[in-house]
Inverse folding.
């Protein structure tokens, strides 16, 4: 059985989960730490291109897979338009970054330094880790001309800890997008292979 399309859909679900969580935080200030954990842990797994090694527990990506399913079936609600928009923007940001050779190399160097210090961050959802990961996003991906615009509650967005978590989630989303692309992911598949992706989602959610 060829599991590559299934794992590609799993990576796509991880991208959509970051868009979902970042928007929820920006809008309400709420953090779903259980859904954040596998995404932020994925930042620290640099040496695997196997999606099921980066995200070994498929059920942890269920929120992102459900959002992806809604987007593909036209069942989006008004409150998740931004979530889908962020997810697609993360895919685009990863493509822009990959075209600038210095950015992936700089990103990897900074992530390797973070991995070397991960013993100091037992909880990847804690503010301390998110400030470090968010700082990497600011120093690398935020320097590109393509930017993701975040809307939400101004009071929430003014909070430095919340801003750091959103940037850390976007970093995790770009990690998932790189992984998706490494495994053959392309944007046209969201249209041409929509039925296959929906079947994969149902299998992953089963």
């Amino acid at each position: 059985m060829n599991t590559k399309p299934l794992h590609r859909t799993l990576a796509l679900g991880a991208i959509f989960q970051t868009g979902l969580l970042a928007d929820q935080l920006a809008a309400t200030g709420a953090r779903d730490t259980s859904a954040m954990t596998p995404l932020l842990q994925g930042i620290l797994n640099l040496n695997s291109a196997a999606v099921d090694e980066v995200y070994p527990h498929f059920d942890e990506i269920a929120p992102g897979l459900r959002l992806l399913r809604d987007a593909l079936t036209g069942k989006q609600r008004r409150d998740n338009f931004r979530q889908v928009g962020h997810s697609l923007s993360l895919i685009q940001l990863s493509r822009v970054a990959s075209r600038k050779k210095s950015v992936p190399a700089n990103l990897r160097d900074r992530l390797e330094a973070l991995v070397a210090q991960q013993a100091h961050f037992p909880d990847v959802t804690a503010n301390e880790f998110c400030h470090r990961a968010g700082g990497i996003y600011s120093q690398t991906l935020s320097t590109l001309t393509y930017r993701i615009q975040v809307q939400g509650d101004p009071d929430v967005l003014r909070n430095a800890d919340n801003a750091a978590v959103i940037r850390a989630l976007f970093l995790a989303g770009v990690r998932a997008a790189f992984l998706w692309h490494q495994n053959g992911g392309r944007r046209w598949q969201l249209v041409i292979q929509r039925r296959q992706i929906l079947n994969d989602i149902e299998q992953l959610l089963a």
In short: Residues 33 and 125 are 6 Å apart (CA to CA). The chain has a mean pLDDT of 95. The radius of gyration is 16 Å. The first helix runs from residue 4 to 28.
